[in-house]
Amino acid sequence: MAKVKPFKGVRPPKHLITEVASRPYDVLNSEEARIEAEGNEKSLYHIIKPEIDFEPGTDEHHPKVYDKAVENFNAFQRNGWLIQDEKDHYYIYAQTMNGRTQYGIVVAANVDDYMKGNIKKHELTRRDKEEDRMKHVRINNANIEPVFFAFPDNEVLEGIINDVTKGEPEYDFVAPDGFGHHFWVINNTEQIETITNEFAKIPYLYIADGHHRTAAAALVGNEKALANANHNGDEEYNYFLAVAFPASHLNIIDYNRVVKDLNGLTPEQFLDALKENFVVEEKGENEYRPDQLHNFSLYLDGKWYSLTAKEGRYDDNDPIGVLDVTISSDLILRDILGIHDLRSDKRIDFVGGIRGLKELKRRVDSGEMAVALALYPVSMEQLMNIADSGNIMPPKTTWFEPKLRSGLVIHKLD
Question: Strand, helix or coil at 29?
């Protein structure tokens, strides 16, 4: 059962929210963060990307960079740019993209739930990335950025979300990327108690986005538990910052592929090879988007094609085998184009669907890439089925948008 609790959030005063809030640390590089934070000493990038306070080219993993993060975090609190709430709260965080709003509950999630597998994952994590975020959590003694969870729909929690969001939001702004962000503080004691009790009835939480942050937060909490001779399980370090969304609120966007060459084949030979496992239809110069599971869009030599996997080329009873990313990885990328390791092969790159089909066309037309492949997006049901079965999705399968804005609320570990 999912154990969550309210917490005393550390957050900006209302009038400073747009100056403090930032994109997550892992969606931009150091130079992009430097540009976005230019002239803004209150930007959270000074805490989550503190290398921007040093000379360009400074190693972001140098000890002095982590030291700078905690120095800046302390300064933000001294200066009143971040202030801790006096009471424990849950919070509602909503995001609006293209006229559609999704509502999540900000909670302190339980470390032990992650260690026992009650918080389910669908991606592999890399130890070097975990270690980087663990250092950041350790030195700040806080979860500066939230992780992104999903949970099976719950009528009672949905009712609380609807009730709370009728009121005036604490924060309400549109970020530079055009996405809206809205944030409410839950003060009602009865609602707070109900949220805790309702989550306790939910068997599992699912990591939607932020596998490395989740692992890092949980591992640091576990370290603190092991190091405390008087550990009792109620300490604040037993919890970490998460925004949990009802599954039906979330929309997974396609995650597409571009490949540098055709593995020695001519375009005609490549198309012929595809016909063994796919029904191939030329669609001409107009953009073609996959319209259902097992249908793919291919862009090659200035033309779009529809590829539909033939019967028997996939296994609808296998949570991994049914995925279009598996079908395309095996039957196109591996068998025809000779790409065996999506994580390390330099001939392939990945393009989030938020950039649209135009970005695929641009990269092929420029000559940088030879062919582009667009996939039908994975569903939340598929993601949860895979996590429940203990399987791991292939790399670069899911793209969630909008990303959580960082800096709306922080969770301290003491």
Answer: coil
**Within its chain, how far is the Cα of 186 from the centroid?**
25
How far is it between the farthest Cα atoms of the chain?
Answer: 70
The verdict on 164 and 241 lying in the same domain is yes
Q: Which two tokens stand for residue 156?
A: 């009672």
Tokens of residue 411, six digits: 């969770």
Q: Which of 87-101, 359-373, 388-402 has the least mean pLDDT?
A: 388-402
129 has pLDDT over 90: no
With 90 as the cut, is the pLDDT of residue 357 above it? yes
Torsion on CA atoms 143, 148, 153, 154, rounded to nearest 10? 10
Residue 118 in any domain: the answer is: yes
Residue of 88, 12, 26, 93 lying closest to 407 (CA atoms): 12
Strand 147-151 vs strand 239-246: parallel, antiparallel, or unpaired?
A: parallel
Please check whether residue 154 is in contact with residue 249, taking contact to mean a CB–CB distance below 8 angstroms: no
- Cβ–Cβ < 8 Å for 209, 380: no
The whole-number pLDDT of residue 125 equals 82
Domain ranges, residue 327: 255-376
Joined together, the tokens standing for residue 161 give 């979300």
CA 270 from chain centre, in angstroms, equals: 34
Domain for residue 353, yes or no? yes
Q: Which residue carries 């339980």 as its tokens?
A: 110
Number of domain units in the chain: 2
Residue 230 and residue 133 share a domain: yes
Q: Do 77 and 48 share a structural domain?
A: yes
Residue with tokens 């037309």: 365
Say whether pLDDT at 291 is over 90: yes
